[in-house]
Specification:
It is built from 4 helices and 19 strands. The chain is an alpha+beta fold.
């Protein structure tokens, strides 16, 4: 991946500060519902997303979805520019993120990306798109959620990025993590894996805080943001030991609709050192929603209903938050 030289990055940040004074750092979290390419990914069970597979996934449908995802990202831009960080869940591999960043409608936005390569049986990964003029990547780590016991299957990795951002006090470090915890559809096995993944995440956050306290700089609270699909609402037991605070808008019904009920399962978690202009909120455009014919109201227009192609973008709405630095 490309990265700006440090001196050039600092100069660009100075220019950005003069051009867009007081602009926050816009961060997005989005489960894009099975963003697969049309090729067989050896070693993973992605056969249903092949042209001859059950879902009849082909080039036309694939590029329509990429275009629609790009349209949503473009729609999140404002006078301060494009979102600085976009955490994506349910992306298959490098090829789909590379196509999104370099061949879609947002190819001129200058995004770079990092991605996990999990041993999830379907090959599902998480990725982070970052705009180098707003976030200079220093390093990133992929954290494996280690199964405990012979019957526990492996699950998706966690993604941790460390980069430089411009704050009111100068240039500082920001840690961004992207997660996609196991689904409740897995029953007891899924619950155990979700708890294990959450404990792994809290351990990473604790480690970052401990390192900051022991650093010569004396920073007591590092800047940390976690985004992703937790497959759990804020009242779930996995959050009892959460060392971060929720940035979710309690007045909003949420980002995901299940049997007519909207839920917050895509969360934004922040360290105490970060403030927001307003709570994290679902971002929507009229064509992202449709009428819920069974339960009433509206719901996200998804790509598939079961194995049947439906033509929407995702069963989740993206979540957006503006962070004051």
């Amino acid at each position: 991946m490309r990265s700006l030289p440090c001196a050039l990055f600092i100069a660009f940040l100075a220019f950005s500060a003069l051009s867009f004074p007081g602009c926050p750092l816009r961060v997005v979290s989005w489960n894009v519902e099975n963003l697969f390419d049309t090729l067989d990914d050896e070693g993973f069970t992605d056969e249903e997303f092949l042209p001859q597979g059950e879902r009849r996934w082909n080039g036309g449908r694939y590029w329509r979805k990429l275009t629609d995802v790009a349209r949503v990202v473009a729609g999140m831009s404002d006078s301060c520019g494009v979102p600085a960080l976009i955490g994506l869940c349910e992306v298959e591999n490098d090829s789909v993120v590379e196509a999104l960043t370099s061949r879609s409608l947002i190819r001129h936005f200058g995004y770079d990306y990092i991605i996990t390569h999990s041993s999830d049986r379907r090959g599902i990964d998480v990725a982070l798109l970052y705009q180098p003029s707003q976030f200079r990547l220093l390093e990133y780590n992929v954290i494996n959620v280690r199964a405990r016991g012979p019957r526990m299957r492996t699950t998706r990795d966690l993604l941790h990025a460390k980069g430089l951002v411009l704050t009111s006090q100068g240039i500082d470090t920001l840690h961004a993590l992207v997660v996609h915890l196991p689904s409740k559809a897995g029953g007891r096995s899924g619950d155990r894996l979700r708890r294990l993944a959450a404990e792994t995440l809290w351990g990473v956050v604790d480690s970052l805080k401990a390192h900051a306290r022991s650093a010569i700089s004396g920073i007591s609270e590092p800047r940390i943001i976690v985004v992703g699909d937790f497959n759990a609402t804020a009242s779930d037991p996995i959050f009892r030991r959460c060392p971060l605070r929720f940035a979710d808008d309690a007045a909003s019904p949420g980002s995901y609709c299940f049997r007519g009920f909207w839920q917050w399962i895509d969360h934004v978690l922040l360290s105490a050192s970060l403030e927001t202009l307003e709570p994290a909120r679902p971002f929507s455009l009229p064509w992202l929603l449709e009428e819920n014919e069974t339960y009433g109201g509206q719901m996200p227009r998804r790509t598939f209903r079961g194995p049947i192609y439906h033509g929407g973008v995702s069963d989740h709405l993206p979540v957006l938050v503006d962070i004051i630095l």
